[in-house]
Amino acid sequence: MPVVHLPKTFERKSLITIACTGMFCSVAAMSSAADLLFAVPDFRDPPTQRFIETIMSDDALAEAGLKLDVLPYSTLGGPVATVQEALKTEAVALLRTELLAFVARNEEKIPTVEMLSAYEKSFFGVAPDADSQGQRAPLELGATALLGDLGLFGLATWPSSPSSIFARRAPTNLADLQGLKLRTTGNASTEFLEQLGAVPQSLLSSEVFQSLETGVIDGTEVLSLPEGDLRQFYEVSSGGALYTDASARTGFFVIGQTGADALTARQLKTLEGAAQKASLAARETLVETYEETLREAEKYGVQVASFSNVLAEQVSVAEQIAQAYGLSQEEILDLIGDIEIAESGDEAPRGESGLSRNGAGRPAHLFVVTPRNDEADHDVRQRFGYKMDASTPLHCFQLNYTREGSRHFGEPFTGEMAISPDGMTTGNGDCIKRVFSQRHPDQGVTFLIHGFNNSFEDAVNWAVSVTEDLAIEGDVVLWSWPSMGQLSGYVRDRDGVDFNRVYLRSFLATLKLFVDQGQTYDISIIAHSMGGLVAMDALRFLAEPPQLSISNVALVAPDVRKAYFQQTLQLGSNISPIWSVYANSNDVALLASYGVNRSPAIGLGGRFRLMMAGVDTVDVSALDRDVCAVWNIGKARCRNHTHAFDVQPVAVDLADLLKSRKPAAARGLIEKQASEGLTYYEIKP
Description:
- The protein is α/β, with parallel strands linked by helices.
- Strands 16-15-14-18-17-19-20-21-22 form a nine-stranded mixed sheet, sandwiched between helices. It has a six-stranded mixed sheet with strand order 9-8-10-7-11-13, with helices on both faces. Strands 4-3-5-12-6 form a five-stranded mixed sheet.
- Helix 18 (562-571) links the parallel strand 20 (552-556) and strand 21 (579-583).
- The longest helix has 36 residues, at 265-300.
């Protein structure tokens, strides 16, 4: 493969910003303009062209100092070279799922190949105007997460027109396809049609129409519809059929590790937002194109058909998910419940969605402790990034925010927030003093640890909303480890957990010293998702001599393997009197985690439910079986993964646990006995 020499595309300039919040002003040096190479296919169907035009015209990119330089694959040495070479520099690209699977296969990343291939196949037989996002969510989450295994981060999906086939006659069953000579344009459709019994043909473009007209071939594949003047193909196929699903053509808008490292958190968020808007615009164009195809076909007397109509048994989405995850279809159906048949609004009772509790006992102080890199942005939400720099000190500060009286339970906090006037502190000793010096002797301290796919903005918004909705009493400390805030940053975020460990241990070692000097602390830990791994690190260190006990450990949808959790519990079972795990069998995010790790997390309910002596497992599957949207503007939470913060009966129980310090058996929960004699709990609706 030729070596592609790319131009230098990234340049930084210095900007000084003066920002004021209330009576306080700050001067911040911000990252400046960044030029990113934008690799695009040479052939651009209408949805692809719309995607490119939409993102290139987004004013938010320029405001964030971003500029995209469009270059076709051919300029970079072809599609594969684009993946292997262009994304080693500061670049973004539109890459088809089929191409990504090919690269993964060459790198022998088999789980990634299986997940990407299953995701692409899940579009088979689905009309562009159909809404099947909920059914494909596990595959899309899994495929997006595993892009990180290739060193890529998917910022948006890329919908483009599927290839279609004009056929002079319309087969009515699988037998009618046997021996049918069909001209194909790519490996995917060739393989698919061979499996159906057809005989793929390879012809030059100049020979196609005459061969179809004279009957040398029975049909021909075209890359997209409408594609120039296809009138003659419609005419020669009159009375025949147009199959709109010869091959799925899905993909992702991605950025490489080098490109992501070159951007600030604000720039990456802006780029992701622009890409998701472009994805929606491309989706609209795809539907418009499909509807135009229906009108054209009717005009010429051509039947619009689907290959799925002639298959003896259509492969279900559940089967595709099962194949990708290496599970049986029964296990998948048990995990995802009603995902195949769920309609919009078809969900279990979730309780009242009233105003936030905003309890009178809410904490006097909310602190933030983080080893994230300081990007000196004037907006505290954008202040810290996702870089892992060993020279970064531990930062801590008090976060002041303006309560939103009209905010409803479970809604993200969007109000004003700022670093308190006494500024920011660095270093373990000063951070410990800062966090604990203002604590009332009778008040406890609750540590919140966020999960995977959380930017710093996500983390602080979450911390405020959880603090308010649970009416947490005492002081709250958000420990924000360097998660990238990207779905396909899963593999990278696990490195972030490892990077965080040194800071966490040093912080806790200093805390132990303060305890040795006579200080007493009543500490609870609430950890969500991958934050459960951070909690395991903390608990393992606290178990080391001199041991420091805490009052409560609550793990919400923990993305922690059972063996690792068991080992941690054995090392420090007496660290806390109460260990609680909130689990959900409908957790699509943890199902995606299963695909990445090839083993279930303890946050999954159902047949994977954790049951151990000394651990209160609360299975909330019956209360929450929502199917979340994977891509969305504004990053609304996947509620089946955040049930303890978004489903009121679950949140009420978690709040009761924090306040009363009572085990599940004393909180009025429904006690369930498993076949092996162990107990778990459910919450009354």
